[in-house]
Amino acid sequence: MPDSSPTLLYCRCAYAQVVPSGVKNEVLQRLCDAGVNFETVSDLCEMAAHRDPRLAALSQCSSLRIAACYPRAVKGLFQQAGTPLSADAAVLNMRNQTAEGIVGQMLAIEPIKHIEESQS
Amino acid sequence: MITHIHRPLRVVLYEGQGAIPLHAEARAKVMAALLDKGYAVTRAASGAPAMPHDDRNLLLLGSFPEQKAPEIEDAQGQIKIDTRDITGLAAEDIVSLVEKTRGDKPMNEPGKWKPWFPVIDYSRCTNCMQCLSFCLFDVYGVSEDNKIQVQNNDNCKTNCPACSRVCPEVAIMFPKYQAGPINGDEINEAEAGREKIKVDISSLLGGDIYSALKDRSAAAKSRFGKERSPDKALDERKKCLTKLVGDGFIPADVLASLPSPDEILRKAEVAKARAATALANIAAS
């Protein structure tokens, strides 16, 4: 039976300082505190800029939950790279959500709202 | 042309069977340090499966008994797997260890380049081609099925979001931009309306360059019918861009790097023709 556990992805936004450092550091710390498995990337924009094939691998992960920035932008990045996110992917926004709220949603057992609904 | 194609090796912070888990604080520190240098890091213990691997070499970091990292090789023989023990090392020492393992293989690094390019929200885009007509740097193109698309990311001028300001549907995002809705933030009707007004202004200033002129009012039609000329269009386009610079919407160096007037005119004509062809193809299909 395929594993239905969500895949957790954290974007550091390391190539530009548009995500508040306090929030992104706290999200990372909380994920580390939780002891869960998760993926991290230095910057999704950087990857999308050159159509990094790792985006395809990520978009194919089951129940992907992404801590990054605005869902509309993240969805667009994946789509523009030719690897659109699946409908069950959720994007949490480190630019306007709290670290506690983001990690709470990432670690939630129940499915969370998909990308169009998780703007705030 | 895409130039930033160097992908870093995949680093795995291994804390599964046979390894001693790090303290959470140390785990976060080493991951942050590696991410800030441009690496992608997988934290692997037991539980959910990690992202499938690709063809990059893999570096496994862990705190192993007797500080001895096991020797591992890919069962399929496709990639090289390096292992390193990190017991007792500080985050910066671990970064040095990873850098040493990477050797002279190139990779992108934060701080040396900014991923600045437009991202199209196709749920809003109406394929009007204004962005293609507006951009003088050939960032936009048309797909085989006549859809607008971003084709030349690297041509985009860093910190210039001008095309997003002329998009009548607020469908162009720059994720690294500070303010919404250009950064991808939700769009409310008031903002959308404001953007549309900006389009009108740009269209007026741009003479016959923008296809939005098709939608102008009868009074504007009359006025611009008298004033339209290639020279006027060039002049007004520069004014438009200068205004955007003055308002802080685009950086001054973008204006400084504009092509020559003849080249602008040529590009505008080529872009206009491409847009017209694509739209005609759609209408015919």
Sequence-ordered SSE layout with sheet pairings:
The complex is a heterodimer of chains A (120) and B (285).
Chain A: E1 7-11, H1 21-34, E2 38-41, H2 44-49, H3 54-59, E3 64-68, H4 71-80, E4 90-93, H5 99-107
Parallel strand pairs in A: 1-2, 1-3, 3-4
Helix pairs in contact in A: 1-5
Chain B: E1 10-14, H1 24-36, E2 40-44, E3 58-62, E4 81-85, H2 91-102, E5 119-120, H3 130-134, E6 140-142, E7 148-150, H4 162-166, E8 172-173, H5 189-205, H6 218-227, H7 230-246, H8 252-256, H9 261-284
Parallel strand pairs in B: 1-2, 1-3, 3-4
Antiparallel strand pairs in B: 5-8, 6-7
Helix pairs in contact in B: 1-2
Task: Give an overview in words.
- The complex is a heterodimer of chains A (about 120) and B (about 280).
- With about 120 residues, chain A is an alpha/beta fold.
- Chain A has one domain.
- Chain A has 5 helices and 4 strands; from the N terminus they run E-H-E-H-H-E-H-E-H.
- Chain A has a 4-stranded parallel β-sheet with strand order 2-1-3-4, with helices on both faces.
- In chain A, helix 1 links the parallel strand 1 and strand 2.
- Chain A is globular.
- Chain B has 2 domains: about 90 residues; about 170 residues, no CATH class.
- In chain B, helix 1 crosses helix 2.
- In chain B, about 35% of the residues are buried.
- In chain B, the strands form 3 sheets. Chain B has a 4-stranded parallel β-sheet, covered by helices on one side. Chain B has a two-stranded antiparallel sheet with strand order 5-8.
- Chain B has about 280 residues and is an alpha/beta fold.
- Chains A and B meet through strand 1, helix 1, strand 2, helix 2 and helix 3 of A and helix 1, strand 2 and strand 5 of B.
